[in-house]
Write a structure and sequence with these properties.
Spore Coat Polysaccharide Biosynthesis Protein SpsA, Chain A; 235 residues
Length: 235
């Protein structure tokens, strides 16, 4: 590539002070043109911790939920690419250079898969592990890439992808931003790659994701994408 694309590292937070103290010092911020923390009104000192780093842009989330955080982030970011990073220790900071190098190679979306090669998830439950396996199987046949991890947040992608009008047509329910990115990118034939990456156990709390409702929302948009693929109809 003649000119390197610009990249923003996005870190969504809500009371993540314990994890931040462990992982944030290990992030090589020089890899990125911008580091953005979007915070859901933390009360544990997260904002104060980030304020000690003047090179990091801090914004307060206006609405609730991870998906809304990502949509608000898209209104702020002006770089070519976005790399999402979870500060709860689920993402290994030392893998960020691998993501960036793949972006420089010209990939549209780079996903750190917990189920590729020898990588594992130390944080998955039986329910989340089975759900990820099932949805990954369903999503891979939307396109040509054999997706192994549909639900992970740890990924880098062209900022233009979730800004497309068609992408937003499928955001009719919440809880689907991450799997929709993978499914939509595969359907549209974007240059896709996965790299193996183990997911360590989280630090500072447990997941509050409503798995049953999330499963229904994900299943719904997958059906809609297959209707698009097979019948060329956008529902």
């Amino acid at each position: 590539m003649k000119n390197k694309p610009t990249i923003t590292l996005v870190i969504p937070t809500i009371n993540e002070i314990e994890g931040l103290k462990v992982v944030f010092p290990r992030i090589d911020r020089s890899l990125f043109d911008e580091v953005l923390v979007i915070d859901a009104s933390s009360t544990d000192g997260t904002a104060e911790y980030i304020s000690k780093h003047p090179d990091v842009k801090f914004v307060t989330q206006k609405s609730k939920g991870m998906q809304n955080a990502m949509m608000e982030m898209l209104e702020i970011v002006t770089t070519d690419y976005i790399v999402e990073f979870s500060p709860d220790n689920n993402c290994i900071p030392e893998q960020l250079p691998d993501i960036v190098s793949r972006i420089y190679e010209g990939y549209d979306i780079v996903v750190v898969s917990r189920y590729l090669g020898e990588a594992i998830s130390e944080d998955d439950t039986m329910i989340s592990g089975f759900g990820n396996w099932m949805f990954s199987k369903m999503i891979r046949y939307l396109g040509k890439f054999p997706i192994t991890d549909a639900l992970t947040l740890y990924k880098g992608y062209k900022a233009s992808i979730p800004k497309e009008k068609l992408f937003n047509r499928y955001l009719s329910t919440d809880l689907i931003f991450e799997p929709l990115l993978s499914a939509y990118s595969n359907l549209k034939g974007y240059k896709y790659i996965e790299i193996p990456g183990t997911e360590p156990a989280r630090i500072g709390g447990e997941s509050t994701l409503p798995w049953f409702r999330a499963g229904l929302c994900i299943s719904l948009f997958i059906v809609r994408l297959y209707v698009k693929k097979i019948f060329k109809i956008t529902l």
